[in-house]
Fold these 3 entries.
Entry 1:
Amino acid sequence: MSNCGTCKSWGLPHEIEKAEAFRSCVRVPHDKSMPGLTVSAEDVAAGTWPSDEDREAYMEERARTLAVVVDAEMYHAALRTSEAFGCVLHELPEEKGAAE
């Protein structure tokens, strides 16, 4: 399995600059950036959305999302990993000049 050390999503600029051993995965989103994604199964079943359109958008987003980080206060959460951590979301960085 590919690991974080070779992934384009491993690390925020300041973490990379400091060569921190554990860096944030910017590929795994915080659930506050996708309201309702981590709503409980009971809420989903009860259909607490104001419209069917909102429910459909929720179900589509949930189907596309493999992981989220959650914080009880909805302030900050991050998946911080070492370079050896393996992940199915791995993407190689684009080579400089390849898109030119």
Entry 2:
Amino acid sequence: MATSCHDDDDEQRALALNEKAKALWRTFCEDGTSQPLDEVVAALEDGIRISQSDSIARAKCLINIGIFLSDRARLRGSAQDLRASIDFLRQARKVAPPHFAQSWELFAGAIQF
């Protein structure tokens, strides 16, 4: 599939948003304030929105939003976050390349597809 410069720029921005979300999550883990949780999800939603449907950037954003929503569901007791987590992880499984298979093993005991 041919990509334009614009597509490549969007993919790089999506990857940067994924990294931003991971950094915000680390901040939450270190200081325990809940403010970064919403920023984490927003950054990943933006990354998913601008990434190509079959890209590595999209797969990474989908996997991480699934993980972070699962954690947020546990912390807040939110069934809605848990359902969204499962939906995002299902989407990720469809677009993730084969070498991401090890990631799925990590979720096997925690979330049933």
Entry 3:
Amino acid sequence: MYIIVGRDRVEKLKDNYTILPLDRVLVDGVEDRAYCVIVNEQISFIEIPILSQWVDLHNKLIEEYDKDNTKFCLDAMEHLYDKFGGELNTFYDELQKRLKSE
């Protein structure tokens, strides 16, 4: 998995990779969004038919996280854990810790 920052980079890569939003970050004092780039080889053949469902759920997770909807986020992460070849498990772990400490 690779991490990129900025929507302009997403636009350049989205046709060839699975791109998922992560948290907001500050770059040179400007808030932007970080994204992870999932290389196709990291997705198992079993996941391919339902990949779009996992992408949609992850996108909704980030949307609800931005709205401080803790319950939705915790529930969604239960379903997303180990998806995307497990590449996002540490992100979900950290997000879960953050949400449970609030």
